Every structure is written in C-alpha cells, then in structure tokens.
C-alpha cells in the first residue's frame, strides 16, 4: 500500500487534467454508471464541526474507495486547516487497500474542477470579472479552475478576516499577475456588483451577500455549505436564477441553499433545471442567453475524489513516488 502526501500529489496532477477527469465522471453519472451510497455525517461540538464518510465506486474505470473528511470551522481560531481528509483506494479485483492519500488537497482540487466544468457550461463566454467569497484552500482551487475555463482579467476577494483576503490576493498576484489582477476588498458589495462569475467558498451558515446586487448574466458557484440548515446565498438569488446542481438527490438532502427556499415555497422542485451529468451529456440545456443568472450548487460526491485519486495513484506507481507502507 502506498501513501501519497500533498507534495507528491501536487506534482502528479494539474487542474486542467482534473477538470477533464471530472467531466468524464459526470458523463458516467449521467448514464447511471456510478454506485454512490449516501454519505454518513457525524456532527460534533453542538453541530459546529463535522466528520463525513463517503464511499464510491465507478465500475468503468475500477475506481473504488472511500474518503473521510473533517470540516472544523472552529480550527480557524487554532490556526489549523478547517478541512482535512484522507482517501483510501481499494483494488476491485482482490479487495486490498492499495493507496492512502492526503485528501485535503484532492478535495479542494476536485471541488475546483467541478466548478470549472459547471462554469465552462454555464458562464457567459465573455466573462472576465470574478468575485470570490472566502480566502481559504478552496478559494485557491476555485480561482485556478476559473482561470482554466475563462479569460479572467480581474478577481476581487472578500473574506470575513481581511488579512486572509490580502494574503490570497498577494499570493495570486505573484503567481498569475502578468495576466490577471487580484484585489482584496473590504465589503461584500465590492465582490458582487461588477462580477461576471461569483464563487462562494465559505463556512458561513447564512447568506454572504445581498442578492439584489447580482447583475444580469452572472454565473454563481456555491460550494461552501453542505448542511440543510446552512446557506451562502439568499432567497432573491434563488428566485432570479436558473438553478443547476451536481446531484439532485444529494442537493435535496444536504443543500440549505435550496432546501430552505423550497420549504418556504419560494421555489419548487421544478426550478432545478438540470444536474451536471445531464448538461455534460447534452440531455438538457444550460444558459440560453447572456441575460440569465445561472446558479450552480455543489455539495460534493466521493466519486469525484476517487476518480482523481485513481489517476494520481496510477501516475505515482509509474514514477515510483510515495511511501510503501508495507515496508515500514
């Protein structure tokens, strides 16, 4: 059994490649070729922190495994990551665990890749301005994915902790500064009013911006909240937007951004126009004109992690990378 850490994983896979893998995964999901049991969630510390157990199987490629991920917003006060994870891959032929991987980076990578696929299908082709809510690990991968699928020229970053937004903007300007300008902002309005694409990557339990400020033609990716009682966008956004999801079943069980307005009667089940598998396969339409506001809600599915992890494992074995745990 191999162990692969974050340093190895970064060297073995790119965002561009991850977006293509995720596109193929959603094609298989759209064909009902995936076995995806409902994930188990254990809430801790009065429901503020969570541990998730997420198994998945993709028969076509033999991708079989489980991700264990912890989401601890309280870790901010400890100066520790809010999300940590491990991914275990299993050989479908003999049942042996063949690989264990640091899963925090893969979680961010595949979440960015999912947003990349959704944005490629739903955002206006001429989208150039990006607004980001949250300045953690997820925000970095979201930015990277947006830059892969659109020619982004200006990124504004808002975080409730101003210093985090400044640090992320500085880091991104150093890396991408020749082609795109990254700007930390002090108000939520500044991250919305001029943005063609908005990404919410926060641990907030309530809406992070005023939906009345969203301009026509905007595309929104909401990827932070994953509990029925939590939401990142308000009712006005949900009312105005064409809604798309990564999974009907998962979203209707876990996405407070949709569950709360559904329970209020603000929208109905019919307002959810398509899932990403249907869009990838061309079974349903996405954006139909440049005036529509499109909203994509992602709660995440383990099959995404497992598919990306399998590619990483294959590359690692060819390059003899990682630690052979059996020899320790």
Question: What does the secondary structure layout of this molecule look like, with pairings?
Answer:
Blueprint: E1 2-4, H1 6-12, H2 15-30, E2 40-44, E3 49-58, E4 63-71, E5 83-90, E6 97-102, H3 103-122, E7 129-133, H4 137-149, E8 154-158, H5 162-176, E9 181-184, E10 197-200, E11 219-222, H6 235-240, E12 242-245, H7 248-254, H8 256-264, E13 272-275, H9 276-280, E14 294-297, H10 302-318, E15 323-324
Parallel strand pairs: 1-6, 7-8, 7-10, 8-9, 10-11, 11-14, 12-13, 12-14
Antiparallel strand pairs: 1-15, 2-3, 3-4, 4-5, 5-6
Helix pairs in contact: 2-3, 2-10, 3-4, 3-10
Characterise this structure.
The chain is α/β, with parallel strands linked by helices and 328 residues long. It folds into two domains: 2-106 and 303-327, ornithine cyclodeaminase, domain 1; 124-300, Rossmann fold, CATH 3.40.50. Helix content is 35%, strand content 23%. The chain has ten helices and 15 strands. The chain has helices spanning 6-12, 15-30, 103-122, 137-149, 162-176, 235-240, 248-254, 256-264, 276-280, 302-318, and strands at 2-4, 40-44, 49-58, 63-71, 83-90, 97-102, 129-133, 154-158, 181-184, 197-200, 219-222, 242-245, 272-275, 294-297, 323-324. The strands form two sheets. Strands 9-8-7-10-11-14-12-13 form an eight-stranded parallel beta sheet. Helix 2 packs across helix 10 (302-318), helix 3 runs parallel beside helix 4 (137-149) and helix 3 crosses helix 10 (302-318). The termini are close together. The model has no long low-confidence stretch (mean pLDDT 94).
